[in-house]
Every structure is written in structure tokens, then in C-alpha cells.
Amino acid sequence: MKKRIVIIGGGFAGINAAKILGNKKDIEVTLIDRKNYHLFQPLLYQVAMSALGEGDIAAPLRNMLANYRNITVFKGIAKHIDAENKVVRTDFGNIPYDYLILACGVKHHYFGNNQWEEHAPGLKTLAQAKEIRRRVLEAYEAAERASDPVERKKLLTFVIVGGGPTGVELAGSIGEMSRYTLSKLYRQIDPKLTRIFIVEAAPRILGSFDPDLASKATRSLEKLGVQVWTSSMVSDVDENGVQIGNERIEAATVLWAAGVTAIETGKETGAETDRIGRIIVEEDLSIPGYPDIFVGGDQANFAHGIQSPLPGLAPVALQQGRAIAKNIILDLKGKPRKPFRYTDKGQMATIGKNKAILQIGSIKFDGAPAWFAWLLVHIYYLASFKHRIFVLMQWGWSYFTFGFGARLIVNRDWRFYPEAVACNPDREKNQS
Amino acid sequence: MKKRIVIIGGGFAGINAAKILGNKKDIEVTLIDRKNYHLFQPLLYQVAMSALGEGDIAAPLRNMLANYRNITVFKGIAKHIDAENKVVRTDFGNIPYDYLILACGVKHHYFGNNQWEEHAPGLKTLAQAKEIRRRVLEAYEAAERASDPVERKKLLTFVIVGGGPTGVELAGSIGEMSRYTLSKLYRQIDPKLTRIFIVEAAPRILGSFDPDLASKATRSLEKLGVQVWTSSMVSDVDENGVQIGNERIEAATVLWAAGVTAIETGKETGAETDRIGRIIVEEDLSIPGYPDIFVGGDQANFAHGIQSPLPGLAPVALQQGRAIAKNIILDLKGKPRKPFRYTDKGQMATIGKNKAILQIGSIKFDGAPAWFAWLLVHIYYLASFKHRIFVLMQWGWSYFTFGFGARLIVNRDWRFYPEAVACNPDREKNQS
User: Fold this and answer.
1) CA distance B405 to A386
2) pLDDT tens digits for B20-52?
3) ipTM score here?
4) Which of A149, A367, B112, B213 is most buried (most C-beta within 10 Å)?
5) Which residues of A touch B92 (CB under 8 A)?
6) CB-CB neighbors (< 8 A) of A405 in chain B
């Protein structure tokens, strides 16, 4: 009788668990994800900044798992985990399991102000990356058309809320884009007048990095025209900008790179969660009281090592996915499970061309060597050889030309006759 | 005093007129388009069928015209042509002109049934290509999840309305995808059971081609599993399929490749138009009574040569754009204008790998030679060297692997908290 393993989530944790379990005898695997693709999230900001296309950083889950005959992939939503009866209730039927792996990740958190999302999209999915891309490019187009200088200033102002790696990467990209790439393309505006703000609540940006490196990154950002505001907590966001206590910035485009919260799938088991909703797991990555349910990746709170809890990084998710799969295999062989031990791969953040910071344990470096290391690591971990070639070529092209390849504004509304649809908040003024 | 030339539309006609007028002394050019990019429409079906990404076939207009200092590009809508006062009223201000070039193209026509658009998207823009891609891929995902065989059959049924080159290319792609590319990726369904219909009202498909070639194309389609229904006019389209007189096909996905109608910009001049709204032009491509207003591309009806009127093909638009620009330059030099003469570049349609048809005058061929010629021509006319390299690589990869590169389903709704937006018809069940 084959053992049935259900994996919810096809990100770094889920896909790497699946690959270990793939083609193992006596195991049937079902992987469920709301999306049909695996996303290389570390490079998502490049899609948002028009440097890469969506196909460059995402691969259909079916393709990645096609050669594992014992793995079935469904695009769908897991609505409820019935831990008593060991059944996952989805929007397309009930899936029984012997072992369950939760790897659903996180979404953005607006600190109780979900209405801010409309004005300040986050960056966790391809759809969001394209929405951000659209807003940034539309701002420049509108500025080119504008006649009022105050309106123009607002259009050429970008606020990034959150000074972690994602916020720094977004701000650095807009800095590079405005100071270099766009400079010759407009006739009415000077893109170099773009104002870019990083608004960070903590006393410094890049809090997870060594203070020296964070300080170097701040200087690199300033050289690209980014203004870094620390000890600045956003108190309100609307369509005209952000309020920071008594201070205010008028901006047409606000991007959210602060605060995440875990996806809620699995909460119904009653498992204990931390302040941001992550499920607290045992040393073997299972839920206390539920040895047949594991949690890996950003959705898990693993606090049994030097770093407690482990941060929400791609290498953590990847290693946890593999460890969970191996523990299940050990279980099936009647052997004891192994406690998870994270092999620290360090962390990196990039600001712009030749400007990055890298830290592994006590090793720290910045500048061009860090940037090339960043490139190599990201190329290496891309989903397939084809992705590596294409991304390498895109980057090669951009490196020598400072060109951003995929700077297209694609309308959200594809309809030519939108009046035939009753209500349509995405209706663009510019229908095409 | 510089002469002001306004071009509305950045497609083949508009962009090629702009390039001729670019950097000419004493000329200021303003190009307005609702989109910020030039689209290589002949390959749009490949984006719809996940074979290419959007960045492969589109280039930002600013980049294409960056080196022409006398050209200003605005992303916007021309709302009204005031021919009396020689002013274009746009959604961002009034633009006066000495010469006006209308090159707005066409949109799909539903024969008075605009409510069909929701169930049967057309293929004229990137947004539509991605909507089609989404629907096709979602159909396969839903079929994989389905338990009811009748529901499954409907999900694995695709109807393409219209048997011209676009319809044939879409149908052939789905045929190839289902019989080859997808075959190993699903566990619950056999993609080779996909039913694909071309529904054409005329007695044969590809009416603009020689009957022999059209017949060969029909056989090629059948070999890919496509069922060709001719003398079949669609009488109704709803969310469950199409009605063809007394016959009915239940299909989850219907695509519209029949009927186009010209964009209405310029109609207010009172110019005479044909049955599908195209403005009838003089031999020099100007509007009768308005020698300073020209029309080129799909929006024009030019009926002064062997083919009357000229068909809506890319080479026609390209040549007309250039001819208009040259006639304006002749005008400014006080010389007589030249009548437009189309140099017939023939026409082509592709069905699948190694299957295409090509016809120039009396020269006709099909099969692999036609297919390679098709590839070369399309590569040649792509917007830039970079596009050519990337598309060549994508095709090279697919040729040897039958892989379709960009098979990603990206949700239309990017929001995680959609309840914060009052009404949202694009809300997906699967939020991600």
C-alpha cells in the first residue's frame, strides 16, 4: 500500500521536498499550489523593475516535476486541513494523506490597514511584480504628459516602505533606472529629478546585516539618488502619498516592502503560531502533537539553533524542504528522524550595478566582488539550464548597455468593450 | 518655423513614418499611442500560446525612437480630431498639427454582439494574448482536477471562430501543444484527447490564399487533431460554448479570430468609410478634401491598385507609413506627391512545426521550406537585434525540445486583500 504524501506549496520548500520524494518506491505525492509555477522570488524585483521578463524567473511546476511519475500536480486551493481524519479539503475535492507538508509561505502585512494595499502593492508574486512595473512606468508617462510642475514632482516621486533587502533592491533599481537608463528617452522631463525614498521604522536599514555593511549600502543608495529615512514609521497611506507622523511625502507611487505574515493554511490544527502567524515547529520540522504534519519555509518558525528563529530566506526553505522529505523517508523505514540543522549560506542584497553586500558568518564584503558573487549564486539556483542561459543573456545585455529589457506597460483590462461588464475597477483610461 | 507632424498610432505604419521623419530638419514630430510599446503583431499568437514572452515581441516606443531628437512620444488617447483648427484633442491636452497621420489600426468586431467578447477574446494586443494564454492553461489545470467526464470533455474543447491566418495559427498551436508538448505533464488527463475546432463562415478557410494551399493547410491542421468546420456561421456565444445554427459545441474556451473593424479615430472629419469603418484614401494616402491628413495601415482603405482594397497586412502598413512620410517631405519641398504603389511581399500562414504556406504572386509553396522562410522573414522584421537574438534562441530551444517556454498562469488580480476593493469582476478563486 503506497504512502500518500501531500505537499501544499510549490516554492523552495515544497519543490525541493517533492524532488527528494520523487520516484521513491511506495510513495505517491500530490503537490497543490494556487499557482501553476514555481517562482524564483529573489529575482522578482527585477520583473517589477522591467529588467527581466516573467518567463525568466518562473517555471511551470508540471515541467519541473514531469519526470517523477509518482508526483501529481494540481493547481488549486487547500481550504481546510482535517488533521483528525488526515484529509486536505481543497476547492476541487478531498485529498487524503499519510503525511502532509505545509509550505505555503507568507504574504504582505499592512499592520491592520488592509486598505493600504490598493495604494502600496507588495512584491511576493508575479502579478504584483507586473502591477508594480505598470505603476512605475505609467508614472513616467504621466509625468511626460503633465503640465503642472507640482503634479509632475509627485509623479516623479517613489516611496518604498521598508528597508530590508527587497526595499533596498527596489529603491536601488529605480535609482539606477532614473539616473541612467531613462535619461535619454524623455523630452519634457528630466528623469534624473526623480525622488526616491526608503522609509524604515527601525534606526537603520538592512537590520539583519552587520552595521558596517548596512552603512555602505546606505551610501551606495544615496549615490543613486535614494533618500533613506530611518526611525520613520508610516502612519497612513493614501492615493497621494504617505504620512510619517508629522511628516508627509506626496508620491504617485508607493511600494510596500515592510512586514509579512504567514499564510493561514494549517491554523485550524490549533498549532501554536508566533507573532506573525508562523507555525512553531519541532526540531524535526513537524508540528507538536502532529508528527505526520510538517511545516517548512517562510511559514515555519524554527527556533532550535543559533539563529532563533531562522529567517525567511530561500536557502532556509530549500534545506528545510529536503530535510522534511528525508525525515519522512526515515519514518517509512522505521528509523529515527534527524533534527534539522541549517547550514548557513549567508545573505546578500544588491543595490545596483557593481554595488552589493554579502555576509556569511563573519565574512563580509561589498562592491563589485559581492555583486558578481550575487549574480553567480542567483544564476546557479535558477530552476533550469534554460533559465540560466536566458537570464545570463538578459543581464549581459543590460550590463553593457544599461538597458532594461522588458519595459512594457500591459493594460490590466484586455477588453475592448468593457461596458459589457457591469463593474470594472481595473478599467484603464487607456484602453488598448 | 518648424512644421509639426502628429502621428497617432505606433504600429507598423506609424513607427515607420516616424523613422523617415526622424532627424529631418525643420520638422517636429509627436507620436501618440495608447500603449507605450510597438507590437510585432504577426507573432502575437505565440505569446497567447506560451511560446514566447511579451518582451520578445514588443519594444517600448521611446527606445525605438530615442535617437531621433525631433520626435516626442506620449502615451495617451487622441479623443477628437479638429480638422478645422488643425488640432488633436487628447486626454492630456491639445496638440496642434500641420500634418496629421492616422495609423490607429483595428479592433475585433462581434457583428453587433459585443457581449460575446467576454466569452471569446480576440488577439490584437498583449493584454489579450495573455488573457488567452491564461484561459487555455487554466482549462488544462481544471481538467486535471475535474472528476466529471462531461465537464472534462468541455474543458478539453477549444473553439476558434475564424479561419484566416490568425485562427489557423491559434488552432495549429493548440494542436501541437496538446499532441506533443503537454503529453507527459498530466496524470489524470490525456491532453491528446483535446478537441479543437475552427469554425469558418465561408466555404473554405484561408480565403485570401490559393485554394490548393488552403487545402494543404486544412490537411496539416487535421493531422494535428484540429477539426475544420466551414460554411459554419456562429449564431451565439456564451460561457458554455458556441451555437452554429442548429449545431452546438460545448467548450470552456472560445477564441475570436473573425471580423475586425477600424478604430474610430478620425471619423469626425466626416471622411467616407467602408463597411468595416476603414477610411477611404486617395492615391497619395490622404483623406479626400483633407490633404494634410493621411491614413495608413489597417485603418486605411486603399483601392487604387491591383488588389483593391489592400489587405490589412504588416508589409502594407510598413510601406504605407514610409510613403506617407515621404509625401509629407515632398510637400514641404514644394514638389508633387507620389501615388502609393504596394510592392507585393506575399502572405504566409503557419500551422505548426515544419508546416506553413507561403504565396507571393504566382509563387506558392508549403511544408518545411515555407516554414523556414516564415521564420526568417519574421526574425528579420523584429524591432531590434536584441529581439532577434532572443526570439531565435527561444525558437531554437523549442524546435529541439518541443517545449513551450512561457507557460505561466499569472492571475489578473494581484491583490491579497481584494475585499478592500468594492467590486472586482476579475477576482480569481485562486488568489495568489
Assistant:
1) 9
2) 999 999 999 999 999 999 999 989 999 999 888
3) 0.85
4) B213
5) 145-146
6) 55, 386
